[in-house]
């Protein structure tokens, strides 16, 4: 059952984002990006207040390097579409289970990002999650 509303075109948009942001991180890396995206739609806190749909999340200004640097041109393949559906259906994995931010630093992961604590690194991406006090929605069960 979907944890956010998603039409087929929303799934495709999310799948394109997974590919553009984390294709080099493999299946799990792309799944983690999907987790963060769905968390942002569900969060309604911090930088993500009022973000209620996948298109709003994907197109939020300055949110994703892939959109800023022109990597968002490739179409989604069946693999990414399946991963996007899994994320929309609530499948979450550590370290992105409750994360709202990730990025790919040139070196070590900073201990905080946007004042949020580091959860862990997966391959080249560092994941950060809010505290329950600052973003309770992210910790609500489906």
From TrEMBL:
Keywords: Hydrolase
Domain of life: Bacteria
MF terms in GO: hydrolase activity
InterPro entries, per the entry: Cell_wall_hydrolase_SleB (IPR011105), SleB_dom1 (IPR042047)
Domain Cell wall hydrolase SleB: 24-128
A matching Pfam family: Hydrolase_2
Name used for this protein in its record: Cell wall hydrolase
Organism encoding this protein: Paenibacillus sp. SYP-B3998
């Amino acid at each position: 059952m979907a944890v956010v509303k998603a039409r087929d075109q929303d799934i495709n948009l999310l799948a394109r984002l997974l590919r553009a942001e984390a294709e080099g991180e493999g299946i799990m890396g792309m799944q983690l990006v999907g987790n963060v995206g769905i968390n942002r739609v569900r969060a309604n806190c911090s930088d993500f207040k009022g973000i209620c749909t996948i298109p709003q999340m994907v197109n939020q200004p300055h949110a994703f390097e892939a959109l800023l640097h022109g990597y968002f041109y490739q179409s989604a393949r069946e693999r990414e579409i399946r991963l996007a559906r899994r994320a929309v259906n609530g499948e979450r994995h550590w370290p992105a289970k409750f994360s709202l931010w990730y990025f790919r630093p040139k070196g070590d992961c900073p201990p905080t990002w946007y004042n949020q604590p580091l959860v862990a690194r997966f391959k080249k991406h560092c994941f950060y999650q809010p505290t329950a006090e600052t973003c309770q929605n992210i910790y609500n069960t489906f």
